[in-house]
Amino acid sequence: MILELAILNVVEDRAEEFEKAFAEARSIISSMPGFQSLELGRNLEHPKRYVLLVRWQTLEDHTVGFRQSPEYETWKSLLHHFYEPFPSVEHFEPILKA
Amino acid sequence: MILELAILNVVEDRAEEFEKAFAEARSIISSMPGFQSLELGRNLEHPKRYVLLVRWQTLEDHTVGFRQSPEYETWKSLLHHFYEPFPSVEHFEPILKA
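YS: structure for the whole thing
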């Protein structure tokens, strides 16, 4: 399992609209091969700031399977205009749990 | 539930030592009141970079219960010297899942 992590900063006054669009976009990503789970969290200290955690079976399920799919174009058109600055995405391999 | 998130950058050549110390420190945090789960992930693109995700019942379980406990002093002495720069910690409230 690979964890995709992105910190999302949403432009002023559009947080509510972003959350609605995300609820719609969720069905796109969750139907992709290799998708395992998704969690969106709202920052307690900075309410326009979010964390997106997506778990994929393999790295390529995200970087190739999802990002090069036609579905990604719909995902982008629903969400990418909310971000300022545009987020960087990182991938992590779980090594320890409790 | 509240998600604590920290990106941890470990000083050059000490990643292996850090992971061992973390495995030891894990039992400290996981015995604290309000602790729910912990996950440590290693960045695939930058192997000295980690993400720490800790789930707490409430924000205060982390900020007061853990950080003001005697156990936190042991946690610090095991781990804090590995970080460069010293990490900032953020808290998120989960709002959406899939």
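YS: worth flagging: Chain B has one domain: 2-90.
IM: good catch. Also The two ends of chain B are 17 Å apart (CA to CA).
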